[in-house]
Amino acid sequence: QSALTQPASVSGSPGQSITISCTGTSSDVGGYNYVSWYQQHPGKAPKLMIYDVSNRPSGISNRFSGSKSGNTASLTISGLQAEDEADYYCNSYIGSSTWVFGGGTKLTVL
Amino acid sequence: QLQLQESGPGLVEPSETLSLTCIVSGGSISSSGDYWGWIRQPPGKGLEWIGNIHDSGSTYYNPSLKSRVTISIDTSKNQCSLKLSSVTAADTAIYYCARRRGGTSGLDSWGQGTLVTVSS
User: Fold this and answer.
1) Rounded CA gap, B67 and B82, in Å?
2) From the CA of A104, how many Å to the nearest CA of chain B?
3) How many angstroms separate the Cα of A97 from the Cα of each of A34, B11, B53, B86?
4) End-to-end CA distance of chain A
């Protein structure tokens, strides 16, 4: 059960858009539409931002969007704001009712 | 609003068993189709899925931890529990409990997490 691959860090200026990738295989990301994304600020619990590849929970800004192509899922944040600076994790179903997280990406808002 | 709260010893000796409880309030732990899971995060590192339990009692574990993990549910107390045996320093982490609605991929409710340190 290997962790999904995410870039260690990404950065962007306020107002810009950034995309965080989450690469797996046909046995996880590519095999199911069960990818979710979490935002984690320092010292806080993770917060669900996207589920089932592209769905936003109630209360999550439409600046956050998710997509998937092949074995890679992506989280896009548009109109970057200072409060978006956080760690982001993807999570994917890998079959047999088991799941795996990505290694995490640190987003810096310049 | 659903709230989850982890509790348990903050310090566990090596080779002993780590035991944590997740108390659920604002909703029933036996709601049809929900999964109750445990996730951990070593200090300064990423998230690791430990396992989860369906409200029917079926359990699913991370293969790398399966031999040492037991997750159970107590509907009368509205709580679920995690036991991790034969702990080492590598098990030092913040442990979170979280809920996943059946049929979806999102962990939509999380506890605040509890730090467990393995040390003598």
Assistant:
1) 13
2) 6
3) 11, 31, 10, 25
4) 35
Place of tokens 């509205």: B78
Amino acid letter for position A82: A
Q: Please answer yes or no on whether A57 and B47 come within 8 Å at the CB atom.
A: no
Return the structure tokens found at A4: 């999904």
Q: Indicate yes or no: CB of A36 within 8 angstroms of CB of B106.
A: yes
Is residue B14 within 8 A of residue B89, CB to CB? The reply is yes
What's residue B55's pLDDT?
A: 84
Does B1 touch chain A if contact means CB atoms closer than 8 Å? Answer: no
Distance, first Cα to last Cα, chain B: 39
| pLDDT tens by residue, chain B, 120 residues | 899 999 999 999 999 999 999 999 999 898 778 999 999 999 999 999 999 999 888 999 999 999 999 999 999 999 999 999 999 999 999 999 999 998 888 999 999 999 999 999
pLDDT, position A36: 98
